Prior knowledge:
The chain is α+β, with helices and mostly antiparallel strands. About 15% of the residues lie in helices and about 20% in strands.
Amino acid sequence: MLTRVGSSACATLLTCVLTAFAQQTPRLSDGHPDLNGVWNGNANSPFAKSDDPLAQNLASRDGKLVNFERDSSLIRRANPNKPLYKPQFWEKVQKLDQNGNAEDPSYGCMPAGVPRMGPPPKIIQTTKELVFLYVSPPAQGWGDQYRVIPTDGRKHTPLEELDGTWKGESIGSWEGDTLVVDTIGFNDISWLEIGVYFHSEYMHVIERLRREGDTLSWEATVEDPDVFIKPWTMDRRVLRLNPDPKASLAESLPCVERDLSHLVTKEHH
Length: 269
């Protein structure tokens, strides 16, 4: 017969065991972590979470799209983690920052590109490739997007044979339980973030995704020796798995630019 102390200890142990079991990371038949699912819960936003499917990954007051651009700009301006450009590009950075409303490609209905697209809201995973699906809220590019990332051991196409694109050519591999996505072959039109961060056609992006329990962490390191003094690692983002087995991504609305010719201030709004 257990004493009260013994019963309490057993109950605590059982709780710990159940919690640990619940946090175990599911795996596919090949042993790699199962990244399948809809990842649209923001686990590290400093603001309230939103019920709006287009705003759930955006940090803004009340989780509303109407506040995202202004709040995002303020956060990024105060964020000490910024890419370090070579001195000859400082004037260009300042000019783009002062004219962000007119210069930002996404304000003209352009795609976000990699790595500005950020972590994928939905992942479809097989043993040979992963498909990343994206919806496109404002300031993260426009138009629903996808990326097909092979993990079959192939090598990159030589850079000189690639036509620069918004998303580049991505190749995936595994480092233990971390998915590493290596991407080259970009155009020089996209920005890295809303904060006027431009790049050259020689940009090289390495993304790392790791699932632990029901959270997915994403981090990207940008190498661009043409414009950067050193590589820049973007702030880590953490998403939560949507527990609804019927969860889906809302279709993005079409983008029709009507504002650029009517701007009266240069403020990020």
